[in-house]
Design a protein that fits this description.
Blueprint: E1 8-15, E2 20-24, E3 32-35, E4 38-41, H1 42-45, E5 48-52, E6 57-65, E7 77-82
Antiparallel strand pairs: 1-6, 2-5, 3-4, 6-7
Length: 83
């Protein structure tokens, strides 16, 4: 069992290969779509496509339990966030 004393702060950089593609379609041409504070009908805009881009490298900070000294194999856990 891992004790709280074995959890150490971790930090570094993470290579970020995440991608998000967005597609929205509707066959109801009278339907209203609201984006932010503006409203549109489907017949005005048609299909909506989008893409979210992330930075290639993201900073990371968290806590983790490293492999104990003297062991060659082990299980590690990191809990943290990347920005």
């Amino acid at each position: 069992m891992v004790s709280c004393q074995e959890w150490l702060p971790r930090h570094g950089l993470v290579i970020n290969k995440n991608e998000v593609d967005l597609d929205a379609e509707s066959s109801d041409l009278d339907r209203t779509i609201t984006i932010g504070d503006r409203s549109f009908t489907v017949s005005d805009v048609g299909d909506i496509e989008g893409e979210v881009e992330f930075k290639d490298i993201a900073p990371y900070i968290g806590f983790g339990n490293p492999v104990k000294p003297g062991r060659q194999w082990g299980f590690t856990v990191d809990l943290g966030v990347r920005f």
